[in-house]
Amino acid sequence: MVFSTPVFLFYFLVLTLLVYYLVPRKLRNVVILISSLIFYYWGEQTYVVIMFLSTAIDFTHGLLVEHFKGKGQLKYAKMAVASRPIHLLMTMSCPAFICPVVSTSSFFIFPTPVTEIRGWRTTLVTSV
User: Fold this and answer.
1) By the 8 A CB rule, do 93 and 86 touch?
2) What is this structure's pTM?
3) Which residues pair with 115 in a beta bridge?
């Protein structure tokens, strides 16, 4: 789904805004989270697992920062903030490194002339 499609503009956006304003204020962030995940799942199902992991890591880092700031341990709070870009880079680079490895290793397990994995197209020669 793309932002400019009629499905998004006339159905998804309208339904999301309707639910957002009908639920109590405490649940509005949950509505936005769920609707965002549905939106991204509609567009590319492959990366929703990565989004769940990234969201869980962000939430955990936020809890760590709040915990350490509450105890007055700013050093550890800063460490929690500083470690997040490392996790972010690992999350973003994961598909770039895993897909070629999986497609190459699948050649040795199940030799096929053409393998397509998550949008990566690799042509493998099985006979010379």
Assistant:
1) no
2) 0.55
3) 122
